[in-house]
Amino acid sequence: MMTVKVFRSPARHGYAVEVSPYIPSRVACAASQYYGIAGCGTLLVLDQTETGLTLVRSWEWSDGLFDVAWSEANEHILVAGGGDGSLQLWDTANHSAPLRVAKEHTQEVYTVDWSQTRGESLIVSGSWDQTVKVWDPALSPSLTTLRGHEGVIYSTIWSPHIPGCFASASGDGTLRIWDVKGAACRLAIPAHKAEILSCDWCKYDQNVVATGSVDCTVCVWDLRNIRQPVNQLLGHTYAIRRLKFSPFDKTVLASCSYDFTVRFWDYSRQQPLLDTVEHHSEFVCGLDFNLHIPNQVFLLTSIFRHIPSSVLASLCPLRVSSSFELGP
């Protein structure tokens, strides 16, 4: 049985949601006014309770916020990326200002990620200025700036397997694999003939990465053989905004789209589509699996009519225990 819980945050368009790696009930949401075109941004931290969603902390930022990532070393710390080219380090125990702000990018920071491999704590950011930057957790001056993409960068994701290795996806239609130590692009894959808005690394196989594109397809790639994808997942009718691999099933992933749907896939099957959730009436922009609770997924959607809002929801009853909404 699926339950729905609502948290109201008016005049905000949701961009990203991420579940805490430490606290199963906690999520962070990055949001903006007016689709990030103008106005400010809000970072929300929410806790799921038996009766609903509780606001733990919220902060306002002078520009839109487009992505958020939890620290892998401290349960209180988050990093967010802003439309003013900044990264901000936030502490849930701090009620007011960010701990630190770094502003080296010259355009919107659209993606941030915190490394997950042992013995390493790094942040990667991707920007519309076509550069990727790698930072230490204190957001001191960036450790390196990587260039190579010929379009805006929409997604950067650390390998959960290989230290100092991350993937990036760009409006230039390529997926790139980077080596931080060598400060070099090790692999460039012409993955789509349209902009790529999202990529993710399989949690169980260091050679498997998926991409989601404006061409409405999800492609699953084996980095050892990039001549063609392992599988091309068809079904969405508009651009794929974000995708994530399941932390519990090796070949399962989820994708959300501007077609208002969320789809669940098993790329190892000949008929890979497992389910389509048509719960939403607006764009679905954010997506994350709960690392602690099998088959629980958080989704962030947005309504932009008279009162913009964000919606946080979950899977259909077949595959999830509960669902969440962040609405007007």
UniProtKB/TrEMBL annotation:
Q: Could you name the Gene Ontology cellular component terms for this entry? A: cytosol; peroxisomal matrix
Lineage of the native species? Eukaryota, Metazoa, Chordata, Craniata, Vertebrata
Q: Which GO terms describe its biological process?
A: protein import into peroxisome matrix
Q: Which SUPFAM superfamilies match?
A: WD40 repeat-like
Annotated localization = Cytoplasm, Cytosol; Peroxisome matrix
InterPro entries xrefs: PEX7, WD40/YVTN_repeat-like_dom_sf, WD40_PAC1, WD40_repeat_CS, WD40_repeat_dom_sf, WD40_rpt
Of which family is this protein a member?
Belongs to the WD repeat peroxin-7 family.
Q: Tell me which Gene3D superfamilies the record gives.
A: YVTN repeat-like/Quinoprotein amine dehydrogenase (2.130.10.10)
Gene Ontology MF: a single term: peroxisome matrix targeting signal-2 binding
WD repeat boundaries? 102-136, 146-181, 189-225, 233-275
Which keywords belong to this entry? Cytoplasm, Peroxisome, Protein transport, Repeat, Transport, WD repeat
- Spell out the protein name for this chain: Peroxin-7
**Membrane spanning segments where?**
none
